[in-house]
């Protein structure tokens, strides 16, 4: 399997095809959906963790124990190779990446197609 890294400084975009290759297959994938809880309840990409945009900065500033207790996953390392943010169409996830980059998460990727593209291509 091709190894994927989101390690370009600045916002790196990830395509549907690249993300599809990781979902359910890569143990390193950390997929963060920054939409509201209500939006996520209507449909989401499998394996995502919901951290709404207005809480992203606070969440990623938490210590690892608090993060795991609140979100149920291990807090990503600053250089996590497959840290991907998504939303509905890529705008809010881009904003979230700007926030986490200020905290040192330089490898974060934006799934610009968002759930809108995912649901169309997955037939949902």
Automatic annotation (TrEMBL):
InterPro entries linked to this entry: Rhodanese-like_dom, Rhodanese-like_dom_sf
Cited Pfam families: Rhodanese
Residue intervals of the Rhodanese domain: 25-123
Protein name: Thiosulfate sulfurtransferase/rhodanese-like domain-containing protein 1
Name of the gene this protein is made from: LOC102208556
């Amino acid at each position: 399997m091709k190894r994927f890294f989101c390690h370009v400084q600045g916002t790196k975009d990830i395509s549907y095809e690249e993300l599809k290759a990781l979902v359910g297959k890569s143990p390193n994938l950390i997929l963060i959906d920054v939409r509201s809880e209500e939006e996520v309840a209507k449909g989401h990409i499998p394996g995502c963790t919901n951290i709404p945009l207005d809480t992203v900065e606070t969440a990623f500033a938490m210590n690892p124990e608090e993060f795991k207790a609140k979100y149920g996953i291990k807090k990503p390392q600053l250089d996590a190779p497959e840290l991907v943010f998504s939303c509905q169409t890529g705008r809010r996830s881009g904003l979230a990446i700007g926030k986490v980059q200020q905290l040192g998460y330089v490898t974060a990727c934006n799934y610009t197609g968002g759930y809108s593209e995912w649901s169309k291509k997955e037939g949902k």
